[in-house]
Design brief:
about 25% strand; 5-stranded parallel β-sheet; Rossmann fold
Length: about 120
């Protein structure tokens, strides 16, 4: 079972993603961070296999956090999460920075599981 850290400032989005992952039986959500600063601390403490991280968050956004995490571990598995309206240039930047994929909100359960299973 792969360990997943969810990083999103929206509790409802985090809960929805956690339910999708738990229902699959293949993933264990080991924690929730509300911003990039919390995500970095939780990554260091928990060492998840995968991080699902929102692009837009207070204090430290997802792209800045991704850059920081990649300096800590080049092989880190990060999937960015964004609303449908927020893709565009940020999608391209996230992939260039090393994100493995991007998931759009609202979530499609099958798409989420497929993308995480590929990692």
């Amino acid at each position: 079972m792969k360990k997943v850290l969810i990083v999103d400032d929206s509790i409802s989005v985090s809960r929805q993603l956690q339910k999708i992952l738990a229902d699959s039986g293949d993933f264990e959500v080991i924690g929730h961070a509300r911003n990039g600063l919390e995500a970095i601390k939780m990554y260091q403490a928990e060492r998840p296999d995968i991080i699902c991280m929102d692009m837009n968050m207070p204090e430290m956004d997802g792209l800045t956090t991704l850059r920081t995490l990649k300096t800590m571990n080049k092989g880190i598995q990060v999937i960015m999460v964004t609303s449908l309206g927020g893709v565009g240039d940020k999608y391209i930047e996230a992939i260039k920075l090393g994100a493995r994929d991007v998931i759009s909100k609202p979530f499609e359960s099958d798409e989420v599981i497929e993308k995480l299973t590929r990692l």
